[in-house]
Amino acid sequence: MLVVNSLAKSYTHDKQSLQAVSFKAAPGTVTAVIGPSGAGKTTLLRSLNQLISDDAGQVLLDDQDLRQLNKRALQRVRRNIGMIFQNYNLIEPLTVLENVLHGCLGAKSMISGMLSLYTTAEREEALALIDEMGLSDFAYTACRQLSGGQKQRVGIARALMQHPKMLLCDEPIASLDPKSATLVMQTLRQLADAKQLIVIVNLHQVEMARDYADHVIALNQGQLVFDGTPDALSDTQIQAIYA
Questions:
Q1: Whole-model pTM?
Q2: pLDDT band at residue 111 using 50, 70 and 90 as cut-offs
Q3: Could you give the domains of the chain?
Q4: Residue 210 to residue 3: CA distance in whole angstroms
């Protein structure tokens, strides 16, 4: 279970990027975070695995407050948190398999990581995830040759190599065509259900939130202005959120 209590963050003295944001997200659910550009969505996501430090509040993952952990303990917890990025964050000249295998680097020694010393079991798992993403024909293809939608699915497979409890997805479909965007959202939905993952996804596309999320939260100027189910999100509320 993810529990966020009164999370606050300011980059400057006169503007708060997050203002006492609180919400919960359970395993097996997709939580969509919506709101206009600059609302605080990316700041929130980066706060959830402490890529940035917050000013106040709690981020509890299975009752463990990430804000109170030392560097080593936080690194261990981050192994349970997969990240999926808008710009894919792949090493483009490397193959799909090589990029997916990078997902287990956090659990390997520095020497093993530097020398790409992966076990047979790790390679088999990576290939199975690539197949699960519908990319088995591209396992040995350089990522620079893939479409945007294919690259994003490589990013998802890489995140799954960590055996995460939670996936944090920062605008994962913003750069994709509608067909690819739908496939990525279907994949995230299926993963939440099948693997009982907590999935938090930042979205600009409200209809995608309505179609694939169990839970929607909305931010505007750093404030939580909606917290509920997609069915409870009316057109009037959407207009207010994006005002």
A1: 0.94
A2: low
A3: 1-80+166-243 (3.40.50.300), 87-163 (no CATH)
A4: 22
